[in-house]
Design a protein that fits this description.
Blueprint (H helix, E strand, L loop, with lengths): L1 E3 L5 E5 L2 H4 L12 H8 L16 H14 L4 E5 L2 H4 L9 H16 L3 E5 L7 H4 L7 H18 L5 E6 L2 H8 L11 H24 L5 E7 L3 E3 L4 H24 L4 H9 L10 H7 L4 E5 L4 E4 L18 E2 L7 E2 L4 E2 L3 H13 L5 E5 L4 E2 L5 E2 L2 E2 L2 H19 L4 E7 L13 E2 L3 E3 L6 E3 L1 H12 L1 E3 L8
Parallel strand pairs: 2-3, 2-17, 3-4, 4-5, 5-6, 6-8, 7-9, 8-13, 13-17
Antiparallel strand pairs: 1-21, 9-10, 11-12, 14-18, 15-16, 19-20
This protein binds 6-O-phosphono-beta-D-glucopyranose.
6-O-phosphono-beta-D-glucopyranose binds next to loops.
Length: 468
């Protein structure tokens, strides 16, 4: 059997400005929260490698785009750095940044690779964080103005825009679980950040539509389907609440233009709701997307709590459920994430059955592996595990499409080994190997496999190399 994908299927990969550009304090770019956090707490970063030290896309964009072509990408997602384009967060536009992004967009198009451009990938300009970041509505306005500048400058050529990548991650990392700056642990503030992010999203969508640029605008969400340990009603209720908190908190506003009433009631009962102003509900309605990007890495397994939370403790999502370690689960031990391929199909099915089958695509899926050089033979990384990972996920995507899901493409995380936040270069994700010292690039076996799949628009079931 051949897994044949619909004509025009998007084959590509995703990246982001802060993880690939480097030159993080050059040519007029100002500091983001990552530059700042690394400057004050370098020990929080694996081997003390910070955001200056990336695969250098800022200088090597032409070479990298040639590699995208060799990988047979027809689409590629990266982001525009707010702190590079508008160094103070609002006001003056940096002409060097405009020239850089124009070069990248023009070269992608010249190579037949359609650019997908995202506007925020965890990289809050420090100047904006100093005003309170997403807690401050002035930053919401500033972000929307930045987005509008991007539409004005690049919207003649960029036809697929995304307001945010995984907007829940800065909420979790920065305001709940201490893995992003500003390292706050406070649910109520986290809820404000989440709400204001969606207002910022909606305002950007409003600006985009006002320009009538003949393109589409979406958002990229990391969806983690919640599976309950058992059919016991307590486990099921716990999984349902985890789903409300971690998926529907962004999915519902993005696809329905409003929050689930149940979530509002739940947070209201604990005094954790952000303040809503006149006009907010109407604005959220305008934020319903044209296209949803789905990042899928792992499921969320849930059981009910053994005892109720102590009201004297800090209010946290875990008041409502406990994480469940399913015996026999398949793990990616390097990243500590479960691999559950069917999850990608369950997401597509949920979208089809409960959200009117939106236009969507897999915007990230991937596998970070430590010490990959041990798999090198004759100068090439033999990452058969990555090929198996992609193939098994794609089989489920294929099934979802056959059953009617409106899934338009598959993007891998990521094109070239890149800087992974606090994990820096611990785990490698790329189709292309990066030698950090020499900056030499070499296509891995998975890159060749993927190029063949993209050229064929599918792959045969039994063929280990993916070639028909
Ligand atoms: C996604 C992000 O969460 O997963 C990427 O959009 C990130 O920015 C990727 O790099 C892999 O996760 P990590 O934490 O291993 O880098």
């Amino acid at each position: 059997m051949k897994y044949q994908f619909p004509q025009g299927f998007w084959w590509g990969s995703a990246s982001s400005a802060p993880q690939s550009e480097g030159a993080s304090m050059e040519d007029g770019k100002s500091a983001t929260i990552w530059d700042h956090w690394f400057a004050i707490e370098p020990a929080r970063f694996h081997q003390r490698i910070g955001p200056r030290d990336t695969s250098g896309f800022y200088r090597r964009w032409r070479e990298d785009i040639a590699l995208l072509r060799r990988l047979n990408h027809n689409t590629f997602r990266t982001s525009i750095s707010w702190a590079r384009l508008i160094p103070q967060g609002r006001g003056e536009v940096n002409p060097q940044a405009v020239a850089f992004y124009n070069n990248v967009i023009d070269e992608l198009l010249a190579q037949g690779v359609t650019p997908f451009i995202n506007l925020f990938h965890f990289d809050m300009p420090l100047a904006m964080q100093q005003l309170g970041g997403w807690e401050n509505r002035a930053v919401v306005e500033a972000y929307a103005a930045f987005a509008d500048v991007c539409f004005q400058l690049f919207g003649d050529r960029v036809k697929h825009w995304f307001t945010f990548n995984e907007p829940i991650v800065p909420v979790e990392g920065g305001y709940l679980y201490d893995f992003h700056y500003p390292n706050v642990v406070d649910f109520k503030r986290a809820a404000v950040v989440a709400f204001h992010t969606m207002l910022a999203h909606s305002l950007a969508v409003r600006h985009y539509r006002a320009r009538n640029q003949d393109g589409e605008i979406g958002i990229i969400l990391n969806l983690t389907p919640s599976y309950s340990r058992s059919s016991d009603p307590d486990d099921v209720a716990a999984a349902h609440r985890a789903d409300l908190l971690f998926n529907r908190s962004f999915l519902d506003p993005a696809l329905r233009g409003r929050y689930p009433q149940e979530l509002v009631r739940l947070l209201g009962a604990y005094g954790q709701l952000p303040t809503c102003r006149a006009g907010d509900a109407a604005l959220l309605k305008e934020g319903v997307v044209d296209l949803l990007g789905i990042n899928y890495y792992q499921p969320r397994r849930i059981k009910s709590r053994e005892s109720p939370a102590d009201p004297a403790d800090l209010f946290m999502p875990e008041w409502f459920f406990s994480p469940y370690e399913m015996p026999g689960r398949k793990m990616n031990p390097y990243r500590g994430w479960e691999i559950y391929e069917k999850g990608i199909y369950d997401i597509l099915t949920n979208l089809r059955e409960n959200y009117a089958n939106p236009r969507c695509f897999i915007s990230e899926n991937g596998m970070g592996v430590e010490d990959e050089q041990r798999f090198e033979q004759h100068g090439q990384i033999q990452d058969d595990y990555r090929i198996a990972f992609i193939r098994q996920h794609l089989q489920w995507v294929h099934r979802g499409i056959q059953e009617g899901s409106h899934c338009l493409g598959y993007h891998m995380w990521t094109f070239i080994d890149n800087w992974s936040w606090c994990n820096a270069y611990k785990n490698r994700y790329g189709f292309v190997q990066l030698d950090r010292a020499s900056q030499r690039r070499a296509i891995k076996k998975s890159g060749e496999w993927f190029a063949a799949v993209a050229a064929d628009n599918g792959f045969a079931e039994e063929d280990n190399d993916g070639r028909s």
